[in-house]
Here is the input.
Amino acid sequence: MSRRTTIRTLLILSLSGFLGGAASFWTMGRGSPVAAASAGAIQDGPAVKGWQKGKGWGWIWGKDDEVGALNGLTDQSRAAALKLGTRGEVFDLGLTYSRRSYKWPGHSPGEIITFRSPDGIRRMQDPDAPPPEKNGDQVFWHSAALFISDNVATQIDGLAHITAGADDHWYNGFKESDWGGDWGPRKCDAPSIPPIVARGVLIDVAAFKKVDALPGHTVITTQDLQDTLAWEGVAIQPGDVVLVRTGTGRFWGEDGADHKTIADHDSAGPDLAATRWLVEDQGALMVGSDTSGYEVNPPPGNPATGFPTHRYLLVDQGVHIGEFHNLEGLSTARAYVFCYVATVNKIKGAAAGFALRPLAIR
Amino acid sequence: MSRRTTIRTLLILSLSGFLGGAASFWTMGRGSPVAAASAGAIQDGPAVKGWQKGKGWGWIWGKDDEVGALNGLTDQSRAAALKLGTRGEVFDLGLTYSRRSYKWPGHSPGEIITFRSPDGIRRMQDPDAPPPEKNGDQVFWHSAALFISDNVATQIDGLAHITAGADDHWYNGFKESDWGGDWGPRKCDAPSIPPIVARGVLIDVAAFKKVDALPGHTVITTQDLQDTLAWEGVAIQPGDVVLVRTGTGRFWGEDGADHKTIADHDSAGPDLAATRWLVEDQGALMVGSDTSGYEVNPPPGNPATGFPTHRYLLVDQGVHIGEFHNLEGLSTARAYVFCYVATVNKIKGAAAGFALRPLAIR
Amino acid sequence: MSRRTTIRTLLILSLSGFLGGAASFWTMGRGSPVAAASAGAIQDGPAVKGWQKGKGWGWIWGKDDEVGALNGLTDQSRAAALKLGTRGEVFDLGLTYSRRSYKWPGHSPGEIITFRSPDGIRRMQDPDAPPPEKNGDQVFWHSAALFISDNVATQIDGLAHITAGADDHWYNGFKESDWGGDWGPRKCDAPSIPPIVARGVLIDVAAFKKVDALPGHTVITTQDLQDTLAWEGVAIQPGDVVLVRTGTGRFWGEDGADHKTIADHDSAGPDLAATRWLVEDQGALMVGSDTSGYEVNPPPGNPATGFPTHRYLLVDQGVHIGEFHNLEGLSTARAYVFCYVATVNKIKGAAAGFALRPLAIR
Amino acid sequence: MSRRTTIRTLLILSLSGFLGGAASFWTMGRGSPVAAASAGAIQDGPAVKGWQKGKGWGWIWGKDDEVGALNGLTDQSRAAALKLGTRGEVFDLGLTYSRRSYKWPGHSPGEIITFRSPDGIRRMQDPDAPPPEKNGDQVFWHSAALFISDNVATQIDGLAHITAGADDHWYNGFKESDWGGDWGPRKCDAPSIPPIVARGVLIDVAAFKKVDALPGHTVITTQDLQDTLAWEGVAIQPGDVVLVRTGTGRFWGEDGADHKTIADHDSAGPDLAATRWLVEDQGALMVGSDTSGYEVNPPPGNPATGFPTHRYLLVDQGVHIGEFHNLEGLSTARAYVFCYVATVNKIKGAAAGFALRPLAIR
Here is the structure.
């Protein structure tokens, strides 16, 4: 792994208008690299824009910011991550969605339905189709209409997904009374999630524990994460996307139809303390796992919410959460360090990216 | 641009089960590189798996194949493409979708609707929400339900999108009577489109012609493509993703609400001859543009179909089509060569990837 | 017309639980008729439960009431109305809905899509279908999935449709902060609209004015209504459903696809003053017309809302509004008095009945 | 019960264009009643248009007919039925639908979602809403978007619902290859079901058997029907709508959320022999029950289809089927004879009427 030593803490982000503008150029800060002299001060890895050890990220990017910790991405960090792709091996981290797929019961069901078919167009003498005299070759088409939730299959939760407090605020203090709406949240929706190109690390807890998958409700502790990393011989660097494997994804199969088996394992995950260690001590830019909700359920202790880790990550830290990532291929290949590339659907009002295919490249 | 000289025509693909299997490891052929000795024979670029000059691609990958020309992707080709990302600059090629977005009238409309909101959960005393005694912090959530077409905003057409003939067959001879269904085509749907990591080339015809955008119905000819490439100083290499810019995308703005202006330009595009030159002479692995349909409309001549180029690419050649790619940032930056990375929604039965964000990285 | 002389103002409604209970017996008040002695006091028609001349209806039915003026329906009023059906002639007042149908632009679009078809079931080897060995006769089925607005084609607006004031209250003071929700209003939704069986009167303004249809934006005044009734030789009785014909419905044709022509006339309708006359002076139990919104648009004067008549009827008076009723057959047959029978979809959370077929029987 | 003795077998139906025409006047045959002299020949009830004892109905109405047995409705039959409503008592036979409602697993799920709300309109500064300066009273509105199946809650199956044979034909020989389509069947869809106003009879088998509800899979035989009718003291007349009560509807409650209990009883129903007796011997114009599918499941014997009674009624006889009718109120009131009034949603392409409220009036 080549060492990245660039510091870019002085860069000023210019995010104004990035959501709607036709020019969606995500390269922020194109100036010359800041002198690397001071890099030596940080012993456990290169510095990363915005992150502070012991504190993490937070509401530090200006009052209009919708991006959160992903502002830490820079040309330099991306270039360094891309260099990890020397072999050209690509792992598809997406799980296939269908009407049968397991999902959290609180989300809406889904159907993918043929909207136009060659048969239908011909039978209906479809007025939108070319007339027969201009279509001697009988060229027709398939398209589908979907009714679908924005929280299914492989997801990245947007920063508006979770709200807290009597004022229902989310990341950066956006409030429901100002920025809610009938058609999804109007701040921090899916289009606000920039393309993610970063160093990725897999913490394969299930493999370390020599189980196919962790039992349901297993709390993954800080110690578990540390032990697994040591066993893998891998160190997290600030700015990394950190993926934790419980093994639940192995039961997804073709399209997640075996609800019972998935549900039996889906509740394992890191607790708040382990997640804080990842973010505040190790500098995770984003975290994720192979379950529907990342965090262990029920949460240990008696937190004043059922989702303390979601609230911590999304609301307080501005750290996006990856869910239902398919980590089986990485585990089999013992691919613990890679370039993580993910983009979410660019759909206004969606609270999350869904049915995604993040990539791990090495 | 570093020269890629590897030939891998001898590799055997093992695609069996790639669609549904939990291990979605897209690295095909991990053997040692074939001797590069014969590479010198091809003067105008490195060889690429499966492609033949003067012929293109086609139904050459075995009778069960659903992948088409993208089978030409190899570890080596991906590794070479990733090396283009030295600066770490990322261009987001996605256009934002909303209920207002322009689309081809033949597709279904779309709505993104708040399914759960903090207000709603509280007011409804939602039984799926945590009870108040376990939720002192009032942590709630947003999620949305979508009714959406699989052919909107930034798309990659799957190989089942277009059918031809009285038997309604698509790529590789899959027929409606065998592989159609109520819930989308059952061969060559979106999950069958592998992650695309390839060298990308922009042919900025609008910039070459010094116009904001080509007028509607403008035929982009082979000569136009050649002249623009010469003006750019860029050569296509076999295996490239080739994107042609008409300028239509500049009118998308926030979310494609200005239907009239978009429609005024949306019909410009390459004709069949120009597209054949790209595929058969230049070795394009995939083609795309910044319009809703890539090909010029109406097609010149009197073809026996209204969509001769769609039919040629998707049915006959097995070449995927990128549509409504946002090429404005690339044009402004004069970024003509880059690493193209795209993944489509992993949704069974979808005929295309939609509301995507392909990336151009340099 | 036989004279109805029964007064039932003393009856106590027992509506508790009518929404969810399995026994949905809408006969309210089965006791012996109240003495008719005082009926003579009202010269211009029989008395009707709850209505007061000069005042209309209003929030008089108890704080939990969701039914409004339709509480005025009694066994006696229904029995009297049914006696109008001596000929057994039935007029279908519904307009056919399809994806092409005209609608107010503020509502969501609609698609009716084949969800299961004989072809699809067979091709997909559908696991929900009977296995071939038990289905030698190849018996399959059609069903459709709909994405549809609750405000399309022939409608009856529920009392939660319109809200007013900073507290967003609707009929009877139900407030959004208490009774709103993510899944439709939770008071006065469609299931709360009881079956309507009442004397109906058509006021055929277009026929009286000798036009195919009133021009757009035509204000129908009290005088217009009075003149038309005199021309018809018909008198309204308290408790009647009053339908006003503009002629707009004649342009609906097969399924309302001629948006332009419909829109050219759709804005004609009664103003607030004419509507008040119907309700407060004449005792209309419900009003309706053959346009998308009943009331004239724009409203005359400078009301502090764009929909003063909707607000008056739904919020203040608790009077339901019938929209897009097909009155063409009644007009042709000069059927001005009839038994009106309408039931709305029993769908929780729907704000209106939609795609209905009210009947006029004589 | 007054005896109806009219014969109208000579009437010629003129149904041409009834589906799309603006004039939807369902009174067929307005001539003077045919002489009643020959009526005496039929001992067990009045004659009814089209029906033949021992044969039932069938494909007798002409090759374009989409209406089936309901063509038997005439002004006279409706007028006679309406005379049963002397008390003005109305029983609402609809069951309330919500996202939680029990349904046959083969149909698509449903969601009713707030599309516009006062909060949302205000927060979004909704461009379709009136501007604040014209809306001092803050008048806003609720509307909902629905994703819903055409086969839920209280239904009337259309004649295109069931197909049979290798050619997938339905009633009157309409074939899938001619009249199928992507947007529902194009013959015999919901708009083709005329308003139903007919004498109705309840056969309360559960009450006769002194059970709350028949156990699952109970076969209701011809003898059961005859015994129950004798116990009730009621005789069916040709042209009647016959409703059979199993008691399953009593478990629907608020909105059919108790799937298990409903499923435990939902499979009871008449078998094919009992249904043939109703149609061929007794002259039932339409049959129905309080279960999701009317007929007993599994069917006795070894029929060459899982739905022999559906196929018999819909395909062969052209007799519509009422499902999930709420018969609890009728049972409690011992109301065995009444005027049945039902209209289905007028939605093109819908294979059934759904979430209906048929009425029983006496």
Summary: The first strand of chain C starts at residue 90 and ends at 92. The longest helix of chain C spans residues 222-232. The radius of gyration of chain C is 22 Å.
